[in-house]
Amino acid sequence: MTAVEPVTADAGRDFIRDIVQADLESGRHKQVVTRFPPEPNGYLHIGHAKSICLNFGVAEEFGGRCHLRFDDTNPTKEEQEYIDAIEADVRWLGFDWGQHLYHASDYFERLFEWAEHLIRAGKAYVDDQSQDEMRASRGTLTEPGRNSPFRDRGVEENLDLFRRMRAGEFPNGARVLRAKIDMTSGNINLRDPVLYRILHATHPRTGTEWKIYPSYDYAHGQSDAIEGITHSICTLEFEDHRPLYDWFLDNLPVPSHPHQYEFARLNLTYTVLSKRVLNALVKGGHVSGWDDPRMPTLAGIRRRGVPPAALRDFVKRIGVAKANSLVDLGVLDFSIREVLNKSAQRRMAVLRPLKVVIENYPESQGEELEAVNHPDDPAAGTRRIRFGPEIFIEQDDFMENPPKKFFRLSPGAEVRLRYAYFITCREAVKDAAGNVVELRCTYDPATKGGNAPDGRKVKATIHWVSAKDSVPAEVRLYNPLFTKPEPDVSNFVNDLNPNSLEVLAEARVEPSLVQGNSPEPVQFERQGYFCLDPDSQPGRPIFNRTVGLRDTWAKIQGAG
Ligand code: ATP
Ligand code: MG
Question: From the CA of 41, how far away is ligand 2's center (Å)?
Fold first, then answer.
C-alpha cells in the first residue's frame, strides 16, 4: 500500500452513489436511509469524516435521511465523554441527524428475543468452552474448524442457560451464545460466530441492567433492519462479514432486509487512523489530549483551525473507491489552503523577530497606515496599522552575505515594507558572539504606501510589525506526528516525530489579532494560516499554525 492516491478527477460520483441512484430509479427503494455507526470508545478521526460525509452526503443528495447510531455494545471501553464528543464533531462537520439518534442499546431487549428465536429454531446454542478452546477449534484459513462438544444441546437447556447468563448467574467468560452455522465453512465468520458474551460492567446507558452483551456482528445488521436502513455502508474489512450479516437477516423475523456495501477506508501518509493507537497516544502522554492539534481527530483538526468546509472538500477530492490506497497528507493541506485562502483575513505577524531601527524616521510617535484585509475581496475592508521608528522583521528576511538570488534585506539592499515604505539596510549590529541582533536602516519618505515616484523597483516585499505597538505572542507550529509515511502501528512510538511541535515563544503580532479573541483563522502574510488557541491567556495569546502557505514539509523530507 505504498502508492499515493492521485486526486480523483470525477469527485462527487462513485459506485455507492451509482447503486443508490439505480435502486431509487428501479423503485427498489422509495427513499434512501443510511446510518453512521460509531462505537463510542474514542474521538472521531478524519477516517470517520470520510464515512460521515459519505453516509450523510448520500442521504442529503438523494433526499433521504441518515441516522446517527452509537454502536454501544462494549461497555468496558465506552464512555459518555466519547458520546458527547462524537455528537459535537458530526454537527461541526455540518451534518444533522434530526430526530434520528439511536443506540444499539435501544434494541438490547429485541436482540435478546431474536436470540431466543434462533435458539428455538435450533440455530443457536450456549457454549461452555473457554476462549482458548474455542480459538483452538475454530480452524484456520486452510483447515476446517471442529464442532463444539456443546453444539447439540437441546433447545430447553439452551434457553435456560441463556436466560441464566442474562440474569448474571455466571462470571465473565464462562459461557457464550453462538450461532449454529457451519464449522467447516470456508468463511471463518460463519464458523459458529459468537452472538453474546457475559460481561459484568456498567453501561453508559443501560447501567447494570445487562450482564450479557451482543457482538458487533449480531447487533449491527439487526439494528439496521429495525431502523429501515436501505444501504448499510461500511469499510472493506467487513466484506467477509457480509454473508453473516445476511444470514442473520435471513433467519430472523426482521422488519426489513438492508444491504451492506463496502468501501475502502481512508489511509493518510504520516498518520495513524486507529482509535486504539490514538487512545494510546493520549494515555501515554505523547500528545496533550484528544484535541491536541497534531492529532488526526476532528477535535484536534478543529483546534488547529481547519474549517469543516476544508474537510468536506478533502473527502470529495479523494473520492470513494473499492480498493485500499494511501492518500498523501498534502491533499488535506491543499484543501485547507483552498478554503482558507478565500475566507481568511490577512494580518501581519513576525514569528522570529529581528529589530530594525529606522534612523531617519522623524516621528517618535509613529503613524497609522492602511492595510487591506483580503487582496481578492474588497468587501473585507481595510484596517489601520501602526508604523514607527522601530519595527520587527523576520530574522530570515535578512542575510549578511546573501547568495545571488536573495532579494530581501542585506547590507546596502532596499526592500519594500508591506503597506509602508522602502527601506535600505545600512548596518547590521552584532552581539559579542557575532550574532546579528539589530539592523540600522533608512527609509524613503517618498515611497509611502509602497511605491517610488521615480519608478525605481525593489525585488522583495517583506512583512513587519511595529516594535512599540505589536503584542508578544506564542506561536505553535505543527508538523506531522510521525516520521514515516506508513507508521508501524504495532510499534508506533518508534516512529513518532520528535519535531512535531515547534514553539516560538518570542513572536510579535498586530494588535488587531488579539482584539475580540476571534477563533476564525487568519493568514499571517507570507507565513501561513493561524488561529488563536484556547490555551491563550489575557496578554499572552497563543496561535496555532493551521497550515503553511506552501508544502515545506515534503521538501524537507525529500531532502533528508
Ligand atoms: P478505528 O479503526 O479507528 O477504531 P472503527 O472502525 O473501529 O475505527 P467505528 O467507531 O466502529 O470505528 O467506526 C464508525 C464508522 O466509521 C464505521 O462505519 C467505520 O467503517 C468508519 N470508519 C472508521 N475508520 C475509517 C476510515 N479510516 N476510513 C473510512 N471510514 C472509517
Ligand atoms: Mg468498528
Answer: 9
% of residues, the chain, pLDDT over 90: 93
Q: Please, are residues 217 and 196 in contact by the beta-carbon 8 Å criterion?
A: no
β-pairing, 465-466 vs 390-394, is antiparallel
Known catalytic membership, residue 39: yes
Question: pLDDT of 296-305, one tens digit each?
Answer: 999 999 999 9
Ligand 1 center from residue 48 Cα (angstroms): 5
Task: Read off the pLDDT of residues 274-296 as tens digits, 9 standing for 90 and up.
Answer: 999 999 999 999 999 999 999 99
Grid cell at residue 364: 517618535
Instruction: Kindly state the cell numbers that stand for 158.
Output: 439452551
Rounded CA separation 423/444 (Å): 6
* Separation of alpha carbons 544 and 531, rounded Å: 5
Write out the three cell numbers for 205: 446507558
Give the model confidence (pLDDT) of 329-351 as tens digits. 999 999 999 999 999 999 999 99
Contact 52, 90 (CB under 8 A): yes
Confirm if 302 and 289 have CB atoms less than 8 A apart: no
pTM of the model: 0.94
| DSSP secondary structure letter of residue 554 | H
Instruction: Return the closest-CA partner of residue 209 out of 199, 219, 217.
Output: 199
Catalytic pick among 50, 166, 197, 275: 275
Q: How far apart are alpha carbons 114 and 106 in whole angstroms?
A: 14
Question: Average of pLDDT values for 138-150?
Answer: 96
Other Cβ atoms within 10 Å of 113 Cβ, number = 12
**482: which strand partners?**
496
**Angle at which helices 46-61 and 80-93 pack, to 10 degrees?**
50
pLDDT of residue 21: 97
* Pocket perturbation via mutation, ligand 1, pick of 45, 51, 89 by most ligand atoms within 8 A of CB: 51
Q: How far apart are the first and last CA of the chain?
A: 22
pLDDT at residue 558, as a whole number? 45
Model pLDDT for residues 359-402, shown as the tens digit of each residue: 999 988 899 999 999 999 999 999 999 999 999 999 999 999 99
Is pLDDT larger for residue 364 or for residue 313? 313
Unique residue bearing C-alpha cell 491563550:
536
Domains and CATH numbers, the chain: 31-263 (3.40.50.620), 275-343+473-559 (2.40.240.10), 347-469 (2.40.240.10)
Query: Distance from the CA of 538 to the center of ligand 1, in angstroms?
Result: 39
pLDDT band at 5 (very low <50, low <70, confident <90, very high): low
- On the 0-12 / 13-18 / 19+ scale of CB atoms within 10 A, 386 is middle
SS3 381: coil
